């Protein structure tokens, strides 16, 4: 996600009125042909390649989840979380206001696949469940993410000042192995976790978006810190041509 965002920031810098302290902006702009569109196109396609080449890619462990229903109270911890099928994202909308230094975007991932190990503890129908280990798969149908980005100059370099995002999930499919509970079939357990995950994502959208937004702002501002316009363009050029090999790819959601 941070790569996706930095592209806009660079484009905004390129078209910013020439009142900042960057040297040689007129000459730089004269050398570039439609720089914003070109940067978006090249970097997004390279991002798609990276997602495919690194599939599946590991992401930070998911926070502990509480699963509750009639007679059921479980805590579940997820580790070794792997994501795939994220490279077929569709760009629904991109809108830049380079003079106002803001942008809007919306992307859709048709079906994102997640694999993870889990450990659960708690009670199911009065029976204690302790340290049961297993594995689950989660397919998220039609994840649509939109957002608004605002940046501003801090001295001679750009910093992100606002990043608001939202998302919708059409549905998800959950399947697990390794958890056995007397009186419940595998289908019963799958439905229990399906309902819990879907409820969590739908009811905690604001919290999830705030956490993601704060992290993205922090990472993007680290990239842009103290970089001149030319320095930011050089960083983008290195990314587009594969000279930056570090991939913290989960943050594009």
Automatic annotation (TrEMBL):
Residues 1-15 form the signal peptide. Pfam families: JHBP. The keyword Repeat does not apply. InterPro entries: Haemolymph_juvenile_hormone-bd (IPR010562), To_sf (IPR038606). Keywords: Signal. The keyword Hydrolase does not apply. This is Juvenile hormone binding protein.
